[in-house]
Amino acid sequence: MDLHAAAWTADTTCEIRPGARRFESWEANYADRLGLGAAVDYALELSIEATSDRLCELAADLRDSLTALDGVSVHDKGATRGGIVTFTVDGVDSVDVQAQLLSQRINTAVAPAGHARLDLPHRGLPSLVRASLHYYNTVEETTRFVDAVHRLRRRLAAVRRSRSQRPRH
User: Fold this and answer.
1) pTM of the predicted model, to two decimals?
2) Per residue in 52-75, pLDDT tens?
């Protein structure tokens, strides 16, 4: 079953969704399968090693740049890290970070705890912002991404300062 057919209810149990959604994992999209075949051919032509090295380098640079920002935490684990970079911004809900980035035409996703049941709740993380890099992304794009997160964080800090400076009645 996939996340369309069932929802995690605890670490070792799930609840099958009512209605027809429970069967979504059984449907096949043949156009997508053909597209996947074409993508595999393309990836093999470019070389898996070359695209993987490029992807990991871009992602490592993005992680380093985000980690250098005050109030931003990168949450990726593992000895080998790929192109998915997950992070949080202190004091800002992940959904709000995603919306603010989207308003600047920067696509990210939110990974809620329910999608990583064995990981996020145990680390006290209700959700993460997920940036998914690809080998074809550019350094300019990752720099723009970091700048957008930095501006978001600065705006939040300015709002907090102005609130703390207001006279109390």
Assistant:
1) 0.75
2) 999 999 999 999 999 999 999 999
Is 4 within 8 Å of 21 (Cβ atoms)?
yes
- Mean of pLDDT over the chain: 90
* pLDDT one-digit tens code per residue, 113-141: 989 888 998 999 999 999 999 999 999 99
Positive or negative: CA dihedral 154, 156, 160, 162: positive
Please count the helices (runs of H) and the strands (runs of E) in the chain: 4, 6
Domain count, the chain: 2
Contact present, 63 and 44 (Cβ < 8 Å): no
Asked if residues 153 and 70 have their Cβ atoms less than 8 Å apart, the reply is yes
Please say whether the beta carbons of 90 and 72 come within 8 A. yes
Q: Taking Cα atoms as reference points, which of 133, 25, 155 lies closest to residue 14? A: 25
At 55 the pLDDT is 96
Same domain, 58 and 42: no
Phi, psi of 69 (to 5 degrees): -85, 135
- CB distance 11 to 117 below 8 Å: yes
* 108 and 57 together in one domain: yes
78: left (phi over 0), alpha (psi -120 to 50) or beta: left
